[in-house]
Specification:
The chain is an alpha/beta fold. Helix content is 23%, strand content 33%. The strands form 3 sheets. It has a 6-stranded mixed beta sheet with strand order 1-9-5-2-3-4. A 5-stranded mixed beta sheet has the order 12-11-10-13-14, sandwiched between helices. β7 and β8 (129-133) form a beta hairpin.
């Protein structure tokens, strides 16, 4: 039985004084633990784990639970637990077309959905869309056993919320977000979201190929464009390689030991 959880209207980050927060990203190729203690900064830490092969969904709950124990997090009194699911089991639906009774229908044409799959949605008010997705219930249950109550969202919901407010003056706001073995391309035109695509990669050439194909699909000329990289995962040589094909390349965020994911960067 699931305990109550918060879902729906998104916030970028909690900033109340004396508040301890645990943010967990659960991806197919990586997981991130981001603990913040505003009353004692020495306790705060970031940890990112990458996988050589995709973890099976049924194993993710045990994996997250083991890392909570390994890092001593399950014994802490934490005020707020936020979980972000970074996977392809989602669909963006304009508010004007959204009907709460058809959540599973929005996903059926994208991937095979099971009768017992649990489906949720996040409200992204800035873009007037819903992000319909499948949360991992086994992960939620492990966290509820440790902390009683959690908030959970899809990673793309908080990412799109943050990117939509990025201070970039170009008509076409183009982002490439790099993670372990996978990356996203997000394009806004005149503040409207035009596309969000997720790809796997092995080399920097793979990334550039799909970036250029994404621009072509939106009829955007690479030689006149500015690409904004977000490096949640370090990948040497990509920035300089990209400059051979795209007019301007900017690094909006580069992970380090203090902050290893863009959505947690203030």
């Amino acid at each position: 039985m699931l305990a109550p959880m918060g879902i729906g209207q998104l916030r970028l980050m909690s900033i109340e004084n004396n508040l301890s927060i645990l943010n967990i990203i659960v991806g197919d190729n990586y997981s991130t633990f981001h603990f913040i203690d505003h009353s004692n900064s020495s306790k705060s830490f970031f940890k990112k784990l990458t996988y050589d092969a995709d973890l099976k969904t049924e194993l993710l709950g045990d994996f997250i639970g083991e890392n909570l124990r390994t890092n001593g997090l399950n014994n802490l009194s934490i005020n707020e637990i936020n979980v972000y699911y970074d996977h392809n089991l989602f669909s963006l639906v304009p508010n004007s077309l959204y009907d709460d009774n058809f959540n599973k229908k929005y996903l059926e044409n994208i991937f095979e959905i099971q009768a017992n799959d649990f489906v949720e949605n996040d409200i992204i008010s800035e873009l007037e869309i819903r992000n319909v997705y499948v949360p991992y219930i086994n992960v939620n249950n492990i966290l509820i056993d440790s902390f009683n109550q959690i908030n959970y969202f899809h990673y793309n919901s908080i990412l799109l919320k943050k990117l939509s407010s990025a201070s970039i003056e170009e008509k076409n706001k183009i982002f490439c977000i790099i993670n372990n073995k996978c990356f996203k391309v997000v394009i806004f035109q005149n503040s409207s979201l035009k596309m969000v695509n997720h790809y796997n990669y092995k080399t920097k050439e793979d990334i550039l190929y799909f970036v250029l194909q994404s621009l072509k699909s939106q009829k955007i000329k690479a030689e006149k464009s500015k690409l904004n990289y977000i490096f949640n995962h370090k990948l040497l040589g990509l920035q300089d390689f990209t400059k051979e094909f795209i007019k301007e390349v900017n690094v909006l965020f580069y992970s380090d030991d203090k902050c290893c994911d863009y959505i947690f960067n203030k």
